[in-house]
Write a structure and sequence with these properties.
single chain; mainly beta; Immunoglobulin-like; 4 domains; 8-stranded mixed sheet
């Protein structure tokens, strides 16, 4: 069995067979396979007709039989299309978002052009658009896909030979000559054996078929002009080979002649849109309140905060503000959309604003494991004074009354097993009160 052509294959579709030679041997494999694939470009209903010739032997006599297989197909209009016309690598995310686009509408034997509008002020024409980067906001992305095809739009037969005359349908009678007139039609077969057939025009020796849209996607093409006969085989009046060159060109062979016209036609225009939503990064810019000695992020409503002092995570500090201490602070904030950002601020001079006239108070190291050194100088420290360590709620976790032997104090404090977190050292000599933040954590 030999596949000779496939008729009415919708534009944009092609086919594959399980035999590259298009010849099938049922005694070796009882089933031949023809798979139609691709993206149809024109809506409607039709029947794909697979034409084959079966050759065999019946009772020792070689027999040839034409075999047709019909495959109904329905192509829905674009309004019922649920498949996107392009893919996007991302549709949402935290700024900046970079999106890659890939068009999907293309078909065998047709040409597709793509007109993009990315919604961010950029546009592009082509199948390989550059990646687009978006800041915070909502963006509508549109793609217009224009599908065109090279088509045989007109065939004009101005003269035919006499091969139509002399059969049962149009006999050639003695002394009378040819009786009747030919019934003309033509077929076009491309390099993939996809065929198209024109309407039959009865009783004419010339005719112009206009308004055609016969796809010419796979050159070269074979044009055959026939006289249709009802009782005998159709008469072949001429065979012409042509390519997809545009314009009107002559054809002529064995007494049959005319012209063919090939043009590029717009088959379909598809419009599709999608959107990109980009969330803003949280504002974590740091501000130091010198009155309260608090360090706060600009956005106080984030879902989480993580604080670091001199590159070390501060345990227990998950709010928008922390008691400040000298050093390099970094906060990382996370928004409800999962976006994160970080800000850094170098803090100096904290805990000394209430110490004038050269009086100093210092704590080191910070952070520490609950054991740290307090250094004070420039005070009238010959008497006694109180030293307190307060937790974030103002509760005292350490208190000691100290008598300083001189104007300078260097003392080691051990808080024991207090929880990791932020604390505040408070020193009072009766005339002055000074505070100094400190952090207990991994050190």
């Amino acid at each position: 069995m030999t596949l000779i052509s496939i008729e009415n294959l919708p534009l944009g579709l092609t086919y594959e067979t399980n035999s590259p030679t298009l010849v099938f041997y049922p005694q070796q494999d009882p089933f031949g396979c023809v798979r139609v694939c691709g993206t149809p470009m024109v809506a409607g209903q039709d029947t794909i007709r697979i034409h084959a010739i079966a050759e065999g032997t019946v009772g020792g006599i070689a027999t040839t039989l034409n075999q047709d297989i019909n495959l109904p197909i329905q192509v829905l209009p674009p309004s019922q299309d649920t498949v996107p016309d392009f893919t996007m690598s991302d549709t949402t995310g935290c700024e900046p978002v970079t999106v890659n686009y890939t068009p999907l509408l293309s078909g065998a034997g047709v040409l597709s052009s793509y007109d993009w509008n990315f919604g961010n002020g950029n546009s592009y024409q082509g199948a390989d658009p550059p990646a687009q980067t978006y800041g915070a906001g909502d963006y509508e992305v549109t793609l217009q896909t224009t599908v065109t095809g090279i088509m045989l739009t007109e065939l004009s037969i101005s003269a035919i030979n006499d091969d139509w005359c002399g059969d049962v349908d149009e006999p050639n009678l003695p002394f009378v000559g040819c009786v009747g007139q030919p019934d003309l039609y033509f077929t076009v077969i491309d390099a993939q054996f996809a065929s198209s057939r024109s309407p039959v025009i009865n009783n004419v020796q010339s005719h112009t078929w206009s308004g055609l849209s016969i796809p010419l996607g796979f050159p070269p093409f074979t044009l055959q002009v026939y006289d249709e006969d009802g009782l005998s085989d159709d008469d072949l009046l001429g065979t012409f080979t042509f390519d997809a060159s545009l314009g009107t060109l002559p054809i002529s062979q064995a007494g049959t002649s005319g012209t063919r016209n090939v043009q590029v036609q717009t088959v379909q225009i598809f419009n599709y849109n999608d959107s990109v939503h980009v969330f803003p990064l949280p504002n974590t810019a740091l501000t130091l309140n010198t009155t309260t000695n608090e360090l706060c992020a600009a956005d106080l409503s984030l879902v989480s905060y993580a604080w670091q002092l001199d590159g070390v995570l501060v345990p227990g500090e998950t709010g928008p503000c922390v008691p400040a201490a000298n050093g390099e602070w970094t906060v990382t904030g996370t928004s409800a959309q999962g976006c994160t950002s970080s800000s850094t601020l170098e803090v100096t001079g904290v805990g000394m604003n209430d110490l004038a006239n050269g009086r100093l108070l210092d704590v080191f190291p910070v952070p520490n494991d609950g054991r740290f050194v307090v250094r004070a100088s420039g005070w009238a420290l010959s008497g006694s004074f109180w030293m307190h360590v307060l937790d974030p709620l103002g509760r005292s976790v350490y208190a000691e009354r100290i008598t300083a032997p001189s104007n300078e104090l260097l003392r080691t404090i051990d808080l024991g097993t207090v929880a990791h977190g932020s604390y505040r050292l408070q020193v009072s000599d009766g005339a002055h009160v000074a505070t100094r933040p400190l952090v207990v954590g991994p050190h």
